[in-house]
Amino acid sequence: MKAELSITRSSFIENAILTIVALLIVGTLILLPLLVILHAAFAEGVKVWLASVTDPDAQSAIWLTLGVTAIVVPLNTFFGIATAWTIAKFRFKGRTLLLSLVDLPFAVSPVIAGLIFVLIFGRQGWFGEGLIERGIKIIFGFPGIVLATLFVTFPFVARELIPLMTEQGSEEEQAALSLGATGWQTFFKITLPNIKWGLLYGIILCNARAMGEFGAVSVVSGHIRGETTTLPLHVEVLYNEYHFTAAFACASLLAGLALVTLVIKTIVERNSSGSWQ
Amino acid sequence: MEAAHFVIFVDFVVPTLKSQLKTYMKLTFKEKSILPGFGLSLGVTVFSLSLIVLLPLSALLLRSSRAGFSGFLETLSQPRVIAAFKVTFSSALQAALINVVLGIVVAWFLVRGRFPLKRLVDALVDLPFAMPTAVSGIALTALFAPNAPLGAFLAQHGFPVAFTPRGITLAMIFVGLPFVIRNVQPALADLSRDLEEAANSLGATRFQTLTRVVLPLLLPSILSGFTLAFSRALGEYGSVVFIAGNLPLKTEIVSLLIITKLESFDVTGATVLAVALLGLSFVSLFLINLLQARTAKYFGN
Fold it and tell me: B8 is in which domain, residue-wise?
């Protein structure tokens, strides 16, 4: 047995070369950019960082981002659960078509995702004139940002749940139903506990993208300072005005969000590998 | 007699027909299931998908039809547009190819390598997914700009990165790398070592085992990682615009040109570019999928 294993087990030197090359790739391409953000954010000390983050424009950008996320994430969580339940638990005509349509926002450039809402609600768009007459502002306003973010984050929850729910099958639900449970009881007491880790991860990913979306929001926001600049847009504005330390300070908040996302992902994966297998 | 016939027909035949029709329709549309909520969840899915995704996307197609064939031709033959498409597609292709090489190495390390902090590296791999693109963009620029240590070093050795097409490729490598790693990693982990041992015991060298046994088996997952990285790179905007320099004809990507057209109130031009970008990316994805089906057939799976 031992002799057999040693054939596929790489030698010490091979392993050392592999490790060095892999660490070099991950180090320069992934770790170094992260460290640069943190370094540049605190280059002028914690005080300057704090001042940049508590600046009124930065504060309104943070609140705008949180507001958009508070609307988008619950909605897309609800839609994602419904989509996953439909696609994973039933076999019907058009199922594969529906599955690929759900993924569509992933295949569309974020800039195009913003553009389509300009075509509908913008000044030269379908409803443009009617909206201007009534004084309703969708493009260059809060509703436009919400719509564009809804579009780009639409697939996240469903994408996490569909493979998981398909793999779990529906025997447990069928047992609950045959023992007299109602549909909703079955969902809340059987399905939801089974998918909770996958659901949590889907929500976390959806949340990270909603807070960090740049391209789509950039097209519909109009960059009105203190009004329609979300946190990523605020970073862009500061950067283009050569306020590098402030830009990186705000970017460090978003980088922190990314790190928290990764930590939760790791925890979720550890927990789920225990309960599913 | 006639009346009795009628009663039998109404009381017996009609309901039977009705229920048979119902089960027939149900069976053809949807397989039987005792789980409830199909109507409700399908309704919510179709409603939200149409309202959030499909209707807005159809606006793009309808609006572009207003440009007409001549409008399409006129916009797409502008030198600046042609240059933008060339830069975008060639950078995306280069980035995806480089990602295949780098991704296989990192995936190999994550599955087969021995290193105490491997789990940390594994967690870090997803950072480009989780990081907002604008943040990645300014971070890469800060690293590879000519006034940064690393950027200056590379520029002095005849390899300037930021504000050249290489910068665009670099940003696309950054956003695409996790796709290849996360596709190859599980396939490599599932790979039975018996095959490698068999090849080895039959006299194959390690190199032969890798190129003739392992890589062909990994090919489907490598291809799907390549596809995802390529398609992400084509549409990428946030991480590219900061490092690209955005010089028309040289380092301007299609996504940026769409925004530029929109800002100069050329909505039709922006729409034409968007449709062309979407169309070309779907065509290339289709071709890669075709290739994938071919290789799957060739290797008999």
Answer: 1-44
B3 touches chain A (CB under 8 A): no
Same domain, A22 and A50: no
Chain A residue at shortest CA distance from B57? A116
Count: domains in chain B: 2
Residue-level pLDDT at A37:
95
In a domain, B59, yes or no: no
In whole angstroms, give the CA distance from residue B225 to residue B92. 13
CB proximity list for A121: less than 8 A, separation 6 or greater: A127, A128, A131, A138, A139, A143, A144, A147
| Model confidence, pTM | 0.88
B4/B136 same-domain check: no
B25, B112: one domain: no
Residues B139 and B276 in one domain: yes
| Closest partner CB to A154 (pick from B53, B59, B108) | B53
Residues of A with Cβ-Cβ distance to B127 under 8 angstroms: 30, 34, 258-259, 262
Domain check: are B77 and B31 in the same one?
no
Considering CB atoms only, which of B53, B113, B236 is closest to A22?
Answer: B113
Residues in chain B where the model's pLDDT stays below 70: 1-10, 12-15, 17, 20-28, 298-301
Question: Cα separation of B290 and B286, whole Å?
Answer: 6
Kindly determine whether residue A214 and residue B142, on different chains, have CB atoms separated by under 8 Å. Answer: no
Q: What tokens appear for B3 in the block?
A: 């009346």
Cβ–Cβ pairs < 8 A, chains A and B: 283
- Give the list of residues 6+ apart from residue B290 with CB closer than 8 angstroms, or none: none
Q: In this structure, is residue B52 part of a structural domain?
A: no
- pLDDT of amino acid A1: 41
- Measured between CB atoms, which of A82, A151, A211 is closest to B45? A82
In a domain, B77, yes or no: yes
Same domain membership, residue B7 and residue B73? no
Q: What domain range includes position A3?
A: 1-41
- pLDDT confidence of residue A271: 79
Residue B272 has a pLDDT of 95
Q: Say whether B242 and A239 touch across the interface (CB within 8 A).
A: yes
> With a cut of 50, which residues of chain A have pLDDT below it?
1-5, 274-277
DSSP string, B23-44: HHHHHHHB---S-S-HHHHHHH
- ipTM confidence: 0.89
Q: What pLDDT does residue A277 have?
A: 32
* Domain match, B121 and B258 both: yes
